[in-house]
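Try this one yourself first.
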């Protein structure tokens, strides 16, 4: 059972000193527990925040502990009344090949309906974030202009497609021509902005000439500022994340244009997807239906080998991935 342990808290980007891969025995299930053979680990930007020793919505991962992560796999031993050997579960198994757990907060999944990685992507935490963030926090309405950053990623790509399904004009912001072409040609976005090669202010004006009703913020920083400057009256800004700042070693400046919220009677609202768990089932049903109808496309970028955890994780910050980033750590 290979495990990735947090060895030292990183300053800036995680490096070789941050984690250690160790070998442990395959755990045994105690009463009320299952052992899950983990096929896929979810790599999420939030994991960077969980490594900081500061107050947040979850306690930090402790030094010497298995790195926290979402996962999906197969039950290989059960002393739990609700689960049997051969069931597939998704939950919080951490970066390791086998997890013993009481399965609180885990869900049973069916690998015959969609592939296992989809259960930690579009039908898992990132997809739920997109769904509740754009519908309940963003409160999008038909005909509105919706701008999304991190648009080619796990959350952004789904938030944008849901906004299209609901009849909005959708413009995505992503790094590079390939991702921008993907947004328009594959996902049906109305416009795309390559923030690495375009002036972001001018590009938002070009793509959203009437302004932005809803800006779904995944990145923070200069892009948030540019979006605020283009907000329409009664605009909403779901604050989902700020990946541009997660590895910052300097203080965070801004947003400078926050008074646009005042002028436009706008709202910026943060949310944490863990608060919506009781409604996941309903959302997953609706999203599964959209997928079956071909209205919602799910894309996973799967890499292999628990030894490659760090290099793969860093792709979240370099942008060298498309869709939901997943690490396969055990064969089926
Ligand atoms: P993604 O799949 O979108 O991967 C991260 C992407 O961020 C990269 O592919 C890269 O895309 C982009 N990026 C990285 N660095 C920068 C930067 N400096 N400036 C702009 N873009 C950058 O990740 P997720 O979809 O899983 O997560 C997206 C956001 O949602 C994160 O901020 C995350 O923390 C947040 N989140 C919040 C939750 C909540 O409950 N509030 C729950 C889940 C996620 P590109 O190539 O386009 O630069």
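Now uncover the answer:
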């Amino acid at each position: 059972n290979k495990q990735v342990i947090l060895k030292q808290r990183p300053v800036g980007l995680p490096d070789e000193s941050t984690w250690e891969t160790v070998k442990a025995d395959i755990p045994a299930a105690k009463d009320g527990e299952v052992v899950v053979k983990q096929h896929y680990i979810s790599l999420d930007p939030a994991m960077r925040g969980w490594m900081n020793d500061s107050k947040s919505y979850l306690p930090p991962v402790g030094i010497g502990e298995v790195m926290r992560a979402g996962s999906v796999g197969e039950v290989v031993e059960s002393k739990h009344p609700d689960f049997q050997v051969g069931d597939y579960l998704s939950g919080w198994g951490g970066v390791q090949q086998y997890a013993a757990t009481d399965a609180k907060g885990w869900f049973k999944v069916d690998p015959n309906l969609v592939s296992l990685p989809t259960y930690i992507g579009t039908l898992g935490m990132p997809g739920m974030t997109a769904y509740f963030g754009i519908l309940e926090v963003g409160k999008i309405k038909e005909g509105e202009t919706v701008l999304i950053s991190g648009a080619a990623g796990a959350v952004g790509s789904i938030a944008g497609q849901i906004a299209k399904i609901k009849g909005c004009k959708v413009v995505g912001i992503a790094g590079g021509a390939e991702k921008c072409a993907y947004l328009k040609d594959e996902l049906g976005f109305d416009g795309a902005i390559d923030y690495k090669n375009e002036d972001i202010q001018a590009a938002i004006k070009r793509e959203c000439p009437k302004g932005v009703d809803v800006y779904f913020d995944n990145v923070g920083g200069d892009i948030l500022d540019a979006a605020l400057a283009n907000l329409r009256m009664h605009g909403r800004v779901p604050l989902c994340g700020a990946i541009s700042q997660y590895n910052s070693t300097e203080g965070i400046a801004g947003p400078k244009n926050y008074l646009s919220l005042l002028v436009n009677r706008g709202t910026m609202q943060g949310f944490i997807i863990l608060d919506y768990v009781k409604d996941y089932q309903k959302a997953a049903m609706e999203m599964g239906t959209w997928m079956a109808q071909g209205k919602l496309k799910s894309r996973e970028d799967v890499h292999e080998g628990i030894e490659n955890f760090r290099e793969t994780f860093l792709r979240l910050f370099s942008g060298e991935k498309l869709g939901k980033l997943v690490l396969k750590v055990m064969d089926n």
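Discussion: Residues 44-46, 125-126, 129, 150, 152-156, 174-175, 179, 218-219, 240-244, 271-273, 316-317, 319, 321, 325 surround NDP (CB under 6 Å). The first strand starts at residue 2 and ends at 6.
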